[in-house]
C-alpha cells in the first residue's frame, strides 16, 4: 500500500529492513528513489531529529559514482526519512550468502569501488563507521566490471554517527558490527577515517575467504581478537594482495593505507588476478557459545550451552531494536572491555583458515590425524633424543593450533 512521506514522496513497496528502519521503493518529483524510514522510536527522539537536521549538509553533499547519494531528508510528523538514490540490484551480503566466496578479481574490483567511495567521503570529512557487506549495494543494471563484478556503491553514510548519540551510548559503550570493528574502537578511541579502511580490508578478506578474519563465536571474543590477534594468511592468496590486506588490517591506525591509495593499489592488482578462481579455503570452526564470559551484549538472548553461535554480530545497532523481517543480527552494543579482558584468555582464539579438505579441529578426522602425527612425533623423538635434541619436540607438540602472534606486527606471507 502506498504511503506519503512528506509532501514530495510516496513509498510504494518495502525493499528491505535494517536495524534502524525500513527501506522503501518510492517515487519523488525526479523519479524513483529509495526511502529509508527510520524506526518510530528513533524518529520521535528530538535529539536525533536535531542531529539529522544539523548533519544535513554533510549527508546531502556526498556525490560519487561509488556512494549512494542521499537526496533529501524528510522530517514530517512522526516520519524521519532519508531519501536516497535507488540502486537496482542487491547488497553484497546477499551476494556472499549466495556465492560464499568471490573470485579474487571480482572481490578486489568491488573493494576498489568501495575504497574510491570512501576516499571521496574522507576528503569531505565524513567517516562511514559501519562498512560491511550489508552496506555495499551492487548495481545490476549497469555494465559489468572486472571479473564480471557489478559496480559497488557504499550506502548508509553517517547513519551510525547520527544514531550513536551520547545519550544512547555512553563513552564506555561500543556501537558497531563486531566483525568489522577496528581495534582502536574496541579500545575506546574515537573513530577516524582509518576505521573504515580496517573494515573494508575485513570485507575484502571475507569476500576472498568466505568468513571474516576475527569473527566467530561470542561478540566479546570477536572484539578481543581484533585487539590481540594477527590475521592468519589465506592459502593460495597472491602475495601482493596479501600484503595489502595485512597493511590495512594493521592494529595501528597510522599504518593503514588511505582510501585513495588503497583504491589505486587494488586496481593495479586487477590484471594479475584475471581468471583466477575463488580461493580454496574451508571455514574455520565456530567456537561454542559458552566461551562468552560476563560480557553478554544487552538484549541478546543467552545462547544454548554448547550450541555454536552464528558467526556475525549479536544485537541490533540501537538497544531494543529488532529487524522485523531480517534474520541478520549485524550490530552489537557492548561495553568497552577492560585491558586485562582484552589481553587475557586463549578461549575463542587460534582460529585459522584451513585449506579445503584439511580436517576441522576437534573433528574425528582431525583427532585421527593428530594421533598419527603424535605417533610420528614419538618415533621422531626417539631418534632425536638419541641425537641429543629431544627438547625440540616439546615445542612442536601442539600440531592442531597454528602459531598466533598477539603483537601488532605483520604476519609472515603465505
Ligand atoms: N538505496 C537503496 N536502493 C535499493 N535498495 C536499498 C537501498 N538502500 C538499502 N536498500 C536495501 O534495503 C535493505 C535494508 O537496508 P538497511 O540499510 O536498512 O539495512 P542493512 O544495512 O541491511 O542493515 P543495518 O541497517 O542493520 O545495518 C537492504 O537489503 C538493502 O539491500
Automatic annotation (TrEMBL):
The keyword ATP-binding applies. Its EC number is 2.7.11.1. Residues 280-294 have a biased composition (Acidic residues). GO terms for molecular function: ATP binding; protein serine/threonine kinase activity. Residues 348-367 have a biased composition (Low complexity). InterPro entries: Kinase-like_dom_sf (IPR011009), Prot_kinase_dom (IPR000719), Ser/Thr_kinase_AS (IPR008271). PROSITE patterns: PROTEIN_KINASE_DOM, PROTEIN_KINASE_ST. Residues 9-270 form the Protein kinase domain. Residues 275-369 are annotated as: Disordered. The chain crosses the membrane at residues 375-395. This is non-specific serine/threonine protein kinase. It comes from Streptomyces capillispiralis.
Amino acid at each position: 500500500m502506498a504511503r506519503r512521506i512528506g509532501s514530495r514522496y510516496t513509498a510504494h513497496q518495502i525493499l528491505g529492513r535494517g536495524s534502524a528502519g525500513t527501506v522503501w521503493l518510492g517515487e519523488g518529483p525526479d523519479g524513483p528513489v529509495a526511502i529509508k524510514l527510520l524506526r518510530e522510536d528513533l524518529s520521535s527522539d528530538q535529539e536525533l531529529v536535531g542531529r539529522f537536521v544539523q548533519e544535513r549538509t554533510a549527508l546531502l553533499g556526498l556525490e560519487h559514482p561509488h556512494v549512494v547519494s542521499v537526496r533529501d531528508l524528510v522530517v514530517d510528523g512522526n516520519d524521519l526519512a532519508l531519501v536516497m538514490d535507488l540502486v537496482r540490484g542487491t547488497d553484497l551480503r546477499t551476494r556472499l550468502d549466495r556465492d560464499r566466496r568471490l573470485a579474487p578479481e571480482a572481490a578486489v574490483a568491488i573493494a576498489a569501488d568501495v575504497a574510491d567511495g570512501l576516499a571521496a567521503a574522507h576528503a569531505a570529512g565524513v567517516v562511514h563507521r559501519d562498512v560491511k557487506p550489508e552496506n555495499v549495494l551492487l548495481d545490476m543494471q549497469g555494465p559489468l566490471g572486472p571479473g564480471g563484478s557489478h559496480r559497488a556503491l557504499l550506502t548508509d553514510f553517517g547513519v551510525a554517527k547520527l544514531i550513536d548519540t551520547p545519550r544512547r551510548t555512553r563513552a564506555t559503550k561500543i556501537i558497531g558490527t563486531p566483525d568489522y570493528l577496528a581495534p582502536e574502537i574496541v579500545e575506546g578511541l574515537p573513530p577516524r577515517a582509518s576505521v573504515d579502511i580496517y573494515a573494508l580490508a575485513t570485507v575484502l578478506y571475507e569476500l576472498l575467504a568466505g568468513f571474516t578474519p576475527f569473527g566467530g563465536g561470542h561478540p566479546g571474543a570477536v572484539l578481543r581478537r581484533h585487539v590481540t590477534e594477527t590475521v592468519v594468511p589465506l592459502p593460495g592468496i597472491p602475495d601482493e594482495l596479501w600484503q595489502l590486506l595485512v597493511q590495512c588490517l594493521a592494529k595501528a591506525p597510522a599504518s593503514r593505507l588511505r582510501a585513495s591509495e588503497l583504491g589505486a593499489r587494488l586496481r593495479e592488482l586487477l590484471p594479475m588476478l584475471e581468471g583466477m578462481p575463488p580461493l580454496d579455503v574451508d571455514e574455520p570452526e565456530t567456537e561454542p557459545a559458552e566461551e562468552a564470559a560476563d560480557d553478554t551484549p544487552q538484549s541478546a538472548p543467552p545462547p544454548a550451552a554448547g550450541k555454536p553461535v552464528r558467526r556475525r554480530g549479536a544485537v541490533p545497532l540501537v538497544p531494543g531494536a529488532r529487524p522485523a523481517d531480517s534474520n541478520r543480527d549485524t550490530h552489537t552494543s557492548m561495553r568497552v572491555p577492560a585491558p586485562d579482558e582484552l589481553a587475557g584468555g586463549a578461549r575463542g582464539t587460534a582460529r585459522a583458515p584451513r585449506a579445503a579438505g584439511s580436517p576441522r579441529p576437534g573433528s574425528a578426522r582431525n583427532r585421527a590425524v593428530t594421533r598419527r602425527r603424535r605417533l610420528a612425533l614419538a618415533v621422531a623423538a626417539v631418534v632425536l633424543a638419541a641425537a641429543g635434541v629431544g627438547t625440540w619436540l616439546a615445542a612442536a607438540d601442539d600440531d592442531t593450533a597454528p602459531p598466533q602472534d598477539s603483537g601488532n606486527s605483520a604476519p609472515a606471507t603465505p
